[in-house]
User: What shape does this take?
Amino acid sequence: LLVGLLVTAALALTSLALYNGNEDRLLKLRQRQLNLVIAATLPAVQTPLASAATLADATGGSAHSFRAFMTPDVGPGKQFVSASLWRLGAPGPTEIAFVGSPPQISSQPRELRRLFARLKQPGLLDLTGILHATRPSLGFAFSTSRRAPVFIAYAESALPANRRSKLESNSAFSDLYYVLYLGRSRSASQLLVTNASKLPLPGRKAVGVVPFGAGSFTLVVAPKGSLGGAFFRDLPWIVGLVGALISLAAALTARRLARGRQRAEQLARDLDEIASGDRARYHEQRSISQTLQHALLPDKLPELSGLQVSALYVPASAGLEVGGDWYDVVELDDTRLLLIIGDVSGHGLEAATTMALLRHAALAYAAEDARPAGILEKLALFARSREGESCFATVLCAQIGLEDRQMRFASAGHLAPLLLDGENAQFVDLTADPAIGLRRVRPQYREAVESLPNSATLIAFTDGLVERRGEVIDAGLNRLRHLATSTHEPLAQLVATLAHELTAGDRRDDTAIVGVRWQTKIMSGGWQN
Amino acid sequence: MAELTPAPPELTVTPSSEDGIPVLAVIGELDMSNATVLKTAIASAGAERGGRLVFDLSGLRFIDSAGIAVLLEAAERVGSVSVRDPAPPVRRVIEVTGLTEVLPLESHR
Assistant: This one.
């Protein structure tokens, strides 16, 4: 989390620096950037807890499931030092299970009561005050609904004991002091972390409030030397800063983002070549959103013998914002693979947050019972139970048998995948049931079974790949079918070619595409593409 | 490198009423960049919960998932929503996404 806070700090530094410009356009960009600041760190904390809470709802609060799910994120050097599952009830909250060290909040009954009494908004991450016990820490809590039984996933992250943490000396913003406080006050008791040895910071400074779930942080920055007006004239500096930011953001989700980092470095290099300040800021903004989007998507796909999996996400060309398309391919066991692809309507932070929630909920449901129709039904009930603005999503869920070559699938308003077999290409015969998120429709999904030919390639995609203005969707589907049959390339290139050729031009929508290909065993014992 | 943000496509929404049932004629292209235009029109169309609302989509040339979401939101809030004379690009999107039950199509010609 500390790294996450530093990313927040770093991203906000950019925003605050941009603040110095007085053009309206810059102000708007800064506003969007602050939104992205939240997106940068919030999912990293919220999604594990949201998934754990969803899993608890699905399993009736199973301690075993909770421990199995949270263990990878808890321990020294991990996101959390402690994670626990609670059930809300009279006379007070009961602890069901914990992972890592025992939750410090248990020994602070006042803080415990305060947090659980405040947990009024399901679906929103809540923060404790700074917990002063054997070591200072900060707690986070999440619940999915208010309906009984209410399960709360809770976790604590350690703060540095003396609250001091230096920025990398070679980073582009090492000539800045920063101070991060919990909440809106700037009192010493609320200090989370700083790189200054003496507080308060002297001289010129900038202050900003960064919303974080149900709470917020206050960030104060000051230049160590001269900085201010030179900022915009000094474009290479900005480029360097963006590069550093992106690698920081990449490090935040390092486990899931090895490839994202490479991409970020490429983006930083691309930025280097841009001359005009406006364009630089535009691309800076765009690359940050893209990096975030990649942080939200899986970067590791299963590697199975005899089977290739490849996937790609293409952001909207018009959008500066993160989108709502997602995909997942997971191994259920040695013989079964689960493919999920979805599209949350809309763009921006809200769509991305909903996407992250649905994505993790789907995986939690799949861990329970991997029937595609069952996953969609639970997902539909989950989406309906969320309060606030309605959200809609189309989702395709397919369970692929590696040995029996049977695919069981169900669709919530999602387009049918393309099945390629040599020169033959057909969209899988599928009747879509309604999208996720409709309250008036009873969530009931039909499952279909398709036998896959020996050397088949399956291409699942979102509507961005085939929808184009001024034409019937069938024209786009036919374009995909023709291009897929005429392109004889290894799977990764095929996926890239389809994405590149079919999303060129004015893309107002983002696109996700996933390919699965069976390799035929040849006589020499190797695998043929 | 990439182009800057293109201008939003044109969209006009004309409200009218037939036998007391509000009708919204949606003309142009509907996507995420202008979906709020239709949202606002729906809010002021005066369709009651449990009432009826008709979208005349004969002049709508394009719809994306954000546009569909606005129609679905209306279907959720108002009791019965129908879609009149959609042009093929729009009709096919409603059909392939399995929404003909929620957004029943009707012909007026």
Remarks:
- Residues 1-5 of chain B have pLDDT under 50 and may be disordered.
- The first helix of chain B runs from residue 35 to 43.
- Chain B touches chain A at residues 1-6, 9, 29, 31-33, 61-62, 64-66, 68-69, 72-73, 75-76, 88-89, 92-93, 96-99, 101-102 (CB under 8 Å).
- The longest strand of chain B covers residues 21-30.
